[in-house]
Specification:
Largest sheet: 7 strands, parallel
Number of domains: 1
InterPro entries: NAD(P)-bd_dom_sf (IPR036291), SDR_fam (IPR002347)
Strand content: 15-25%
Strand order of the largest sheet: 3-2-1-4-5-6-7
CATH superfamily: NAD(P)-binding Rossmann-like Domain
Distance between the termini: 63 Å
Protein name: Glucose and ribitol dehydrogenase-like protein 1
Organism: Vreelandella boliviensis LC1
Number of strands: 7
CATH topology: Rossmann fold
Family: Belongs to the short-chain dehydrogenases/reductases (SDR) family.
Shape: globular
Helix content: 40-55%
Number of helices: 7
Keywords: Oxidoreductase
Structural class: alpha/beta
């Protein structure tokens, strides 16, 4: 029997790093996909190996390389590969009025086309397994200032549901949609407080909340095709305007 292993795209930085380390703690050997974050990947890999797990860094540029080659490399290095976690993401804000074709192509290539193709090749390479897509709680909204990014993530959410049907029961596919958990470094404290005001639970999330969600999806074998929103209820805060709150 081969030791179970996971391929984590974007697994060296931000949320991807937390997922890589959590999966190592859960007994997985880890294949870390990397593009430009080689130094960070070496640091994460060193920590994972210190835990007694094997770790391999696999380079792939989602804008030019073939996704199938990444799956093949991960499977060759770790024959027990049984989990694909799509965490890599491209983000560039712009409303539709300022969106160019190149921006659309980049956002969709990284955020939707590559996860779809990785899922396809993963399903070809393994007998059984799981795919978990990291989405964004913004898919609950129509925030046009993030048009290309958000449309690509909405498409990823729909692909998650569609693929869950196509590849069941052999491959179980779900998604996690984080809210205010690990804001970009340029976000000010005032901005974060303003965001928290719109969260029913009135607090910011932590990476551990997402790790708990990861474990839930890994261990509950009767969950498929679901997008688990981990956002303190922010995405359901859509009361809208009506006569009773008109004067507020």
């Amino acid at each position: 029997m081969h030791q179970q292993a996971a391929l984590v795209t974007g697994g060296a930085t931000r949320l991807g790093r937390y997922f890589s380390e959590a999966l190592a703690d859960a007994g997985y050997n880890i294949a870390i996909h990397v593009n430009r974050s080689r130094e960070e990947a070496e640091e994460v890999a060193s920590g994972i190996r210190a835990k007694g797990r094997e770790c391999e860094i696999l380079p792939c540029d989602f804008l030019s390389d073939e996704p199938g080659d990444l799956i093949q490399a991960a499977k060759q290095r770790f024959p027990g590969l049984n989990l694909l976690l799509n965490s890599a993401s491209a983000y560039e804000p712009a409303p539709i009025a300022e969106t160019e074709l190149a921006m659309l192509e980049t956002q969709f290539r990284v955020n939707m086309f590559t996860p779809l193709l990785l899922t396809r090749h993963f399903a070809e390479a393994v007998q059984e397994g799981q795919v978990i897509n990291i989405i964004d709680n913004k898919v609950a909204y129509h925030q046009y200032p993030y048009a290309a990014y958000l449309l690509s993530k909405k498409s990823l959410a729909e692909m998650t549901r569609m693929a869950a049907l196509e590849f069941a029961p052999r491959i179980r596919i779900n998604g996690i949609a984080p809210g205010v958990v690990l804001p970009a470094s340029q976000r000010t404290s005032d901005y974060i407080e303003w965001r928290i005001e719109g969260i029913p639970l009135k607090r910011q999330g932590a990476p551990d909340h997402l790790v708990q969600s990861l474990h839930y999806l890994l261990n509950n074998s009767f969950v498929a095709g679901q997008i688990l929103f981990v956002d303190g209820g922010e995405s359901i805060n859509l009361e809208g305007r009506h006569s009773e709150n008109y004067s507020l």
